[in-house]
Amino acid sequence: MWKIRLILLLLLNGCIVALHAQQDFDKVHVQIAKVAGDVFLLTGQDGNIAADIGDDGIVLVDDEYAALGDKILAALKGVTDKPIRFVINTHYHPDHTDGNQYFQKQAPVIAYDNVRKRLESGGQVGNRGSLVFGVVSPQPESALPILTFDHILTVHLNGEDIQVTHLQNGHTDGDSIVYFPKSNVVAMGDDFLRIGFPFIDLSSGGSVRGLIDALDDVIARMPYDVKVIPGHGPVSNIDDIRTLATMLKDTRAAVERGCKQGKTLDQLKEEKVLEPWKNWSGPITSDIYLETLYNDITGKSASLVKPQ
């Protein structure tokens, strides 16, 4: 059973090159559906893609896999014949950035500074404990964002002031959200998932505490009726983000109490400390999430990407 769960997790994050190569993209059907205003959602193999489509062209948020590039373009052409003007990466994981090589031939890729650094250097993806989910290989120059920013960036296109904002370390140390104010839609990347327990990549600078603070910030700043595109899963709303934030706070507090009592990870697992939240178990199981919490609280997480 644990092997099946691990394979599901690897497929979710697209982190192992060998496993990635085995995926049959010929059978993938890329679908496109309107979310609100000028913003559409494209779904294919793994991570969600948001697209702002208007008279000035297309702004893509994330780009899945290069092998799906033709299918993604075909889906877009079902709505518009306008060109892609920009691609925005919400973070560096391959299921959101592997298409960079394909799409950067048509439009520049934008990302937070650390996204370029991590794609350029590659590295381990996982928990920095026993949970190592894979290694991202260093990417060629053609796959690296050519426009980077250090806090916030605005793209003025299609009558939108598209706001790209870096959040503090949550899913990774390079996370951004993309808000389309005219359409009232926000694309959250993997800081917000609708798959159960979240994947927090401690080895890439992620942080449970940071993710909680990031979600609280989003809840405070976004309109209550904003439509939310998660990194994985169906279109959601602010209440769904609030539910995730509450679960993160409660589970972190439960594990922190055990750590202060000197309990080991194995003891916490034996006590089933996360049993009250068992319904959240999915691709990220209770034990995987518990180990993430334990390693984060006890300081067994990775350091940030250092500026060069």
Task: Give structural notes.
There is one protein chain. With 308 residues, the chain is α/β, with parallel strands linked by helices. It has a single domain, classed as Ribonuclease Z/Hydroxyacylglutathione hydrolase-like (Metallo-beta-lactamase, Chain A, 4-Layer Sandwich), CATH 3.60.15.10. 32% of the residues lie in helices and 22% in strands. It contains 10 helices and 14 strands. The radius of gyration is 19 Å and the shape is globular.
Tell me the radius of gyration.
Answer: 19 Å
What distance separates the N and C termini? 43 Å
From the 3D coordinates, which CATH architecture would you assign? 4-Layer Sandwich
Helical residues, percent = 25-40%
According to CATH, the homologous superfamily is Ribonuclease Z/Hydroxyacylglutathione hydrolase-like
The total beta strand count reads 14
Ranges where pLDDT stays below 50 over 5 or more residues in a row are 1-22, 301-308
Mean pLDDT: 90
Order of helices and strands: HHEEEEHEHHEHEEEEEEEHEHHH
**Oligomer kind:** single chain
The CATH class is: Alpha Beta
Secondary structure category = alpha/beta
Largest sheet: 7 strands, mixed
Strand-residue proportion: 15-25%
Shape call: globular
Looking at the structure, the CATH topology is Metallo-beta-lactamase, Chain A
Strand order of the main beta sheet, please?
Answer: 1-2-3-4-5-6-9
Structural domain tally = 1
Count of discrete alpha- or pi-helical segments spanning 4 or more residues:
10
